[in-house]
Write a sequence for this structure.
């Protein structure tokens, strides 16, 4: 199973194993990772699953869709070039070891 690390704004890292094909958001929410809310359930309609993907792990991720791009303009924390919606990233074995930073605020 792919391994994902969520790094909190405090620097605390939470490492977990995700079922292949699940989204970053689902993996975080089902494991109680602080700071990932996932209010809309993964419909790209709330932006409360905002994460910053570390540049060294950005390769091979799905492209940002138009819906995701629009929602990324609505994030509470600043949008950067590393910003993604966790619910729009399906985790595959090729993403094993991915590290993402959790923003300081989501709502
Ligand atoms: S869970 Fe709502 S946009 Fe990702």
């Amino acid at each position: 199973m792919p391994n994902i690390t969520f790094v909190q704004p405090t620097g605390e890292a939470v490492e977990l194993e995700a079922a292949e094909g699940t989204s970053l958001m689902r993996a975080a929410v089902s494991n109680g990772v602080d700071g990932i809310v996932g209010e809309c359930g993964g419909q790209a309609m709330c932006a409360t699953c905002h994460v910053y993907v570390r540049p060294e792990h950005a390769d091979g991720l799905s492209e940002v869709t138009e819906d995701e791009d629009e929602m990324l303009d609505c994030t509470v924390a600043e949008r950067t070039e590393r910003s993604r919606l966790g619910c729009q990233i399906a985790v595959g074995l090729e993403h094993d070891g991915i590290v993402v930073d959790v923003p300081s605020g989501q709502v």
